[in-house]
Amino acid sequence: MDYLQLGSYTFSSRLILGTGKFSNATVMLEAVRASGAQLVTVALRRFNREQLADDLFSPLRALPGITLMPNTSGASTAAEAVRAAQIARELSGSPFIKVEIHPNPQHLMPDPIETFEACRILAKEGFLVMPYIAADPVLAKRLEEVGCTSVMPLGSAIGSGQGLATAEMLNIIIRESNIPVIVDAGLRSPSEAALAMEMGCGAVLVNSAIAVSDNPPAMAGAFAGAVDAGRKAFKAGLMPKSSFAIATSPLTAFLGAKV
Amino acid sequence: MTNLPDWLTDGRNSATLAAMLDPSSSSSLESLAIESRALTLRRFGRTMTLYAPLYLSNYCSSGCAYCGFASDRKTPRRRLEPDDIRRELTAMKKLGITDILLLTGERTHNADFDYLLRSVDIAAQEMQRVSVEAFPMSIREYRALADSGCTAITIYQETYNRERYEALHRWGPKKDFIERLETPARALEGGIKTAGLGVLLGLSDPGEDALSLYRHVRYLGRTYWRAGLSVSFPRMRPQTGGYEPPFPVDDHSLARIIFAFRIALPDVELVLSTRESAAYRDGMAGLGITRMSIESRTTVGGYHDPENNGKGQFDVFDDRSAHEFCNAMRAKNIEPVFKNWDPAYNGPADVNNTILHPVKPQPCL
After folding, report:
1. Which one, out of A247, B8, B100, B330, has a CA that is 20 to 30 A from the CA of B146?
2. Which residues of A are catalytic?
């Protein structure tokens, strides 16, 4: 079997779901089920222990076969992210932490310096650290060196639906990486998810494209199929690209023929 | 008289917004609504973040012509003491509220900085997110508020028309237009994470005020790149004191302003309070607005004791319960979100508020 390995955890699904932006918890849960996802991320700021109707964590925890990956969305510094990670581990019991540090709450671009520092500390503390980063090949290697479980570069700006705008950099990250590369953010259509998988990503994380669709469970199913197809294509080996037509009867076959 | 800053008078970057705000422009209200809805959905999803105001005190030292709490009004004055605040917070928590806005009037000895700081401290122990709408403060005071758990401040310029501003603010500390204008920057300088801006629609030409407000938001975003920014659209409602707004803004004009702001600032939080009717708020949910107040009491002590509350700062138009409001949101396929913050992220927004180790000086060889 072809498993996604993250720390000591193995997953047969390579589609990871984000849980924000849904119109209600029921639709979110249906989308998670329809996606076949086994790993889902939920923001600590959406944990609400005092009012269960407003809580995203408890209904997800009750779903069978799901591993939760809390995230630090809302943190603007390494100190805040480390604090959030510790609280999230306490509340959820999950060793996974998706490190999201965006000092500007409008564009939500990840801070590479604070992210690196938070990951270094959290990896030492035994977390399975999954950092959301810009598609920066050097930062990706630095994070691998400090013990991250995967790197999660953005395909394009979060929520933008601009697809794999960072494809060139993603290719370098994937080629050089010894840990799974998971495209996080920017995907709009299942075909883009398939493309990311064909490029050799270990998984993709999707939220907005599913949550804001008119039919989130159906869209989740569509992404699941695309991720599966893309992964199978990658494993099978895509034929090389060429700018020229390659004839099955080579034009140069006469060269070296006996006269 | 201090000159207006360049960022306020320079119209070069607001031409697109000006075109959208012009009611005679080619962009119809409907086409603006369509674009505004798409951008809101993409960035904020199908959610609405909720908060509630808590009036700490209605003592005031200013003479704002339009305000029910101005110092010449006959309104009985009161402030909440720590035990009153805890009672109010308990009542608010029962309604599901986790995100609150603490309000006072302009600075007086009855409700001064120390009083506000103590109140923030109490609120931060009970609530997930605490914001403040009070008087302008110094950088040092804002820093202390941030340290106590205040993440956001709201400070409306009311109007960016200086002449009208000075006429409307008849006396008191709020009379200084430039001092007011510089306040959000001081708050961000002090480490407050989010500044909420707005104009009181009805006081002056709404199109001009909207453009100035936009320039203010853009200036703060460029200058304080970590700043969270939000924009509110309070529209004059009947006040205690019977002030008639000289530039009334109708439903269509307000909608045009909201849509234009969403298009011009696609990732900024846009806020609509209970000053607006239930139907208007329901209609605007998903079309541009991403944050709304609920269960508002504009009186001091109105949550614990809703019967004995006297006149508020303004009359609440949408007086639905949290439950009714949430049902209306769900019927529109929008999730009401009570908790969208965590105290783990409290503290000043500051590059020095980090655990990055400073580079150790190398010994000289």
Report:
1. B8
2. 98
